[in-house]
């Protein structure tokens, strides 16, 4: 494909043939076009010479470099990459009906519910998110919540080739800030909620919120689906210049639910979608999952899918890996969940307390090289809402695990709680929690969900919470 076909102005350069795209110089091959992306920690311009040495046919830059090669100067290399990737793969996103879901919590669960509803309506649906990329019987592990543009448009191309009609995907705040979905028009852009997270990157909540808000413009979507009970959601709904559908429980909105009932085995409530009413049953419990189902229902309404498919699709979801997964043993019940923010873990503990017959014992930690402001807050929440907790490691990355644990402990000590034990080794913490548990107790293992690794000093060591619990249960015969 030639430079002009990728959307570049070639008035001042040769319209050369491009064999591939790259933004990582180590992935450059002969004839590739290399994009010098500018980030907070790295400047791709410093890798341009390496890209040329590996065979790059041209480079896309934000400033001219002292290199003897074809250089295309643009205002923003990230925008250029996103639009070029779409063109390189034949604009597959234009052949798909795309649904994007953003928000601090609930993205993964909501996308799986939407997928189920679309399929209940008789359509094929692909999914892109934290757990995996799924389409047409394929399931590919994810490395990022929202793939980088080259991978993203390659996935779209594979999906269109497989006959996929709809794609529902998680759109992270990082993806919006880094312009990964620039040039893509979503049929629906949905907002779940906003709470503390990713402040290591965004610095403050206002900047984090602004990243989310930019998704709800006519440049990105045709319809917005918004949680009217969230303060940022209410602001987005008020200011939106595109068609908007609201959902919630506490405020007047287009899609809402009443008469919520919850148990360890799921939830039920009465849903109203623009005055069409029916009973909803969902196999995951918690008030927050009522919101996730309402969001999915509002998305389906925006897509003009049958009301019957909404009810059936919600009911058809049996399990979502790493989201409120319950393991019932002869000794106690174990719940594994991805909750890794203060709001997320509070929601989970609140839901468990609704039906817990005895004690709640929580195993949790905080990720390294990530938002440090939530650590003490999470310590306070877990120590207050659990009967006992074990503070442990959760992807420490390049930070000393004990230092992370001490920051979590500071919040627990601040409120005078002593109902905890710090254990650096996650496996040993889980063993201790299960050893402490008695009949009818619930052990919550939070933070990793379906993850298949523990990230330590740049190495992703194979590990999974559910698999380890099953190993212990087998060893001890319960």
Explain what the structure shows:
With 478 residues, this protein is an alpha/beta fold. The chain is 34% helix and 24% strand. The protein contains 15 helices and 23 strands. The chain has an 11-stranded mixed beta sheet with strand order 8-7-6-9-5-10-11-12-13-14-15, sandwiched between helices. Helix 3 (107-120) crosses helix 9 and helix 12 crosses helix 13 (401-414). It starts with 19 loop residues before the first strand and ends with a helix. 51% of the residues are buried. The mean pLDDT is 95.
What is the fold's blueprint, element by element?
Blueprint: E1 20-22, E2 32-35, H1 48-53, E3 58-61, E4 70-73, H2 77-88, E5 97-102, H3 107-120, E6 125-128, E7 132-135, E8 138-141, H4 149-161, E9 166-170, H5 173-177, E10 186-191, H6 199-202, H7 205-213, E11 221-227, H8 231-239, E12 243-248, E13 255-263, E14 266-273, E15 276-282, H9 287-302, H10 307-316, E16 325-328, E17 333-337, H11 342-355, E18 360-364, H12 374-385, E19 388-391, H13 401-414, E20 420-422, H14 426-436, E21 442-446, E22 453-456, E23 459-462, H15 465-476
Parallel strand pairs: 1-2, 2-3, 3-4, 5-9, 5-10, 6-9, 10-11, 11-12, 12-13, 17-21, 18-19, 18-21, 19-20
Antiparallel strand pairs: 6-7, 7-8, 13-14, 14-15, 16-17, 22-23
């Amino acid at each position: 494909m030639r430079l002009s076909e990728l959307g570049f102005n070639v008035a001042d350069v040769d319209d050369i043939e491009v064999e591939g795209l790259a933004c990582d110089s180590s992935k450059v091959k002969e004839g590739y076009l290399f994009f010098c992306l500018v980030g907070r920690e790295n400047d791709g311009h410093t890798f341009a010479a390496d890209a040329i040495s590996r065979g790059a046919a041209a480079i896309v830059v934000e400033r001219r470099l002292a290199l003897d090669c074809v250089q295309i100067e643009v205002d923003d290399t990230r925008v250029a990459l996103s639009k070029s990737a779409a063109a390189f793969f034949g604009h597959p996103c234009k052949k798909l009906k795309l649904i994007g879901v953003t928000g601090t919590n609930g993205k993964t669960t909501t996308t799986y519910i939407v997928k189920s509803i679309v399929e209940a309506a008789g359509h094929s649906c692909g999914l892109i998110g934290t757990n995996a990329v799924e389409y047409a019987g394929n399931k590919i592990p994810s490395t990022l919540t929202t793939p980088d543009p080259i991978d993203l448009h390659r996935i779209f191309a594979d999906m269109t080739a497989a006959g996929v009609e709809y794609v529902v995907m998680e759109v992270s705040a990082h993806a919006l800030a880094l312009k990964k979905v620039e040039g893509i028009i979503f049929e629906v852009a949905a907002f779940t909620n906003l709470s503390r997270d990713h402040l290591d990157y965004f610095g403050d909540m206002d900047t984090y919120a602004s990243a989310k808000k930019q998704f709800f413009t006519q440049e990105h979507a045709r319809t917005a689906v918004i949680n009217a009970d969230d303060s940022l959601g209410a602001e987005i709904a008020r200011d939106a210049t595109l068609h908007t559908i609201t959902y919630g429980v506490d405020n007047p909105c287009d899609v809402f639910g009443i008469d919520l009932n919850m148990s360890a085995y799921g939830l039920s409530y009465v849903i109203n979608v623009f005055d069409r009413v029916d009973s909803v049953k969902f196999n995951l419990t918690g008030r927050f999952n009522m919101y996730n189902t309402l969001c999915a229902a509002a998305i389906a309404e925006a897509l003009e899918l049958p009301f019957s498919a909404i009810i059936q699709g919600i009911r058809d979801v049996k399990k979502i890996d790493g989201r409120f997964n319950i393991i019932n043993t002869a000794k106690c019940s174990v719940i594994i969940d991805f909750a890794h923010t203060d709001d997320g873990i509070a929601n989970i503990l609140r839901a468990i307390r609704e039906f817990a017959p005895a004690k709640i014992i929580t195993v949790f930690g905080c990720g390294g090289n990530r938002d440090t402001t939530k650590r003490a807050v999470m310590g306070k929440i877990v120590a207050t809402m659990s009967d006992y907790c074990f503070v442990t490691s959760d992807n420490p990355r390049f930070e000393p695990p004990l230092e992370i644990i001490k920051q979590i402990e500071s919040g627990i000590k601040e409120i005078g709680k002593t109902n905890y034990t710090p254990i650096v080794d996650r496996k040993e913490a889980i063993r201790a929690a299960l050893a402490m548990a008695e009949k009818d107790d619930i052990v919550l293992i939070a933070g990793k969900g379906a993850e298949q690794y523990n990230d330590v000093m740049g190495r992703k060591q194979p590990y999974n919470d559910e698999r380890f619990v099953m190993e212990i249960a087998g060893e001890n015969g319960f």
